[in-house]
Amino acid sequence: MTIHDPVTGYEYPDEWVRACRDTHALEQVGQGLAILTSGGTILKRGFTTGTTAAAACKAAVLSLRGPVSSVFITLPCGLRCEVEAVGRDGSGFARKYPGDYRDDITADLLFCAQAKESVSGISVLAGEGIGRFERKTPRYNIGDAAVSPPSWATIRGAISEAGDELHLDGVVVALTIPDGAEIGKQTLNPKVGVVGGISVLGSTGLVEPWDDHLSEDVFDRIRRAAKPVLTTGRVGLRYARMLFPESDVVLVGKFMGKGIDAAGGEAVLCGLPALILKFINPAILDGSGYGTVEELTMSDQWTTLLEQNLSDYKRRMPGMRVVIVDREGHVQGDSQ
């Protein structure tokens, strides 16, 4: 029995599949709602803040015609999933489901939406508890809501589906996260210039149960590969597969050091600049006047700094190749 992960494309080893005696669990793995470990147990994926927001908004719109107990959301990764959400009389509510990610600080956080019909089109208002940028970045202006493009697309798509189902000419939806401001203070948002709430994110729509479980099966996979490509996130994963179609591309998140050790120092590190550059040079922002690597990419010194850091790392780690891409997949730097 062959099982692929529809989120990452990874084909699970036959011995992992045979070790799992739970047919329903294997169905969840095949649906992308869980990941399979070498011992045959599964770890459930959760839903991102973007997915949760979309569910609350869709429930609010659908409830204009009757009570709602769950909704179907098309995730950025292409999967269509049923998400728990309740709605009544134009009000929608959804709680953030963390899956088996034990350290999810936003677990069970309540998302609220209010919907009302309008003359035409879709309007979404980001309100209380959603962070806003206090300084300009390559992707956001000062005052912009901290909602990622994939999340906006998911939210608007969910509202559009609900509006079409009810044959509405237009709809206005106001999204709020009542405890978002307090939770936002406990995240990295203040350090990256986001204040007043949490960020609404999710490049796939799903949360991985990484932190407690990444160190075994994923690193065994790296050890078996000839020269693996290690990447830090979903955007990097997508472009790394395009750039290295013959290689085993493995998502290691923040565990780049462990991944490199598992590969014996012979691997490709490919992805967006932030995590990778802070890994190969933890002091890259010191004295720069910038709070994040993303802001640094806007500066006149970016190209020179990138080339210098890649060159320095190549000297320290000759068996490693580092490829930096931007969010459109363009290669910004290559240590080869």
Describe the structure concisely for a colleague.
The chain is of the alpha/beta class.
Describe the protein's architecture and organization:
By secondary structure, this protein is an alpha/beta fold. 31% of the residues lie in helices and 24% in strands. It is built from eleven helices and 19 strands. Strand 5 and strand 6 form a beta hairpin. The radius of gyration is 21 Å and the shape is globular. The model has no long low-confidence stretch (mean pLDDT 91).
Keywords:
336 residues, CbiD-like, Rossmann fold, six-stranded mixed sheet, five-stranded mixed sheet
Rg over alpha carbons:
21 Å
The fraction of residues in strands falls at 15-25%
Count of distinct structural domains: 3
The low-pLDDT segments are none
